[in-house]
Amino acid sequence: MLNIASIVIGLGALLWALVAFIPLIGALNWLVLPWAILGLALGVLSSRTSGRNLNLLVIAVASVRLMLGGGIL
Q1: Cα–Cα–Cα angle for 55, 57, 63, rounded to 5 degrees
Q2: Which of 6, 54, 61, 73 is most deeply buried (CB count within 10 A of its CB)?
Q3: What is the pLDDT of residues 42-67, one digit of tens each?
Q4: For residues 9-42, b (16+ Cβ closer than 10 Å) or e, as one string?
């Protein structure tokens, strides 16, 4: 059950991370990261690894986008 919740949170965060790739909306990644970290925490508590891996991917994508945009753009 925790894995399903982790996947749902991860897919939602991934959707918002993809929206944040639009120029001048990169600051949205600051809101994506806490949701992905919450999903990661649920994924770690789960016995399966798919939710955890999805949230790790979202965290990596959002972090790289924030670094490329200087944390704002």
Answers
A1: 100
A2: 6
A3: 999 999 999 999 999 999 999 999 99
A4: bbeebbebbeebeeeeebebbeebbebbebbbeb
CA 30 to chain centre: 10
Q: Tell me how far apart the alpha carbons of residues 13 and 37 are, in angstroms, rounded to a whole number.
A: 10
Rama region for 23: left / alpha / beta (φ>0; ψ in -120 to 50; rest): beta
Q: How does pLDDT run across 10-36, given as a tens digit for each residue?
A: 999 999 999 998 888 888 999 999 999
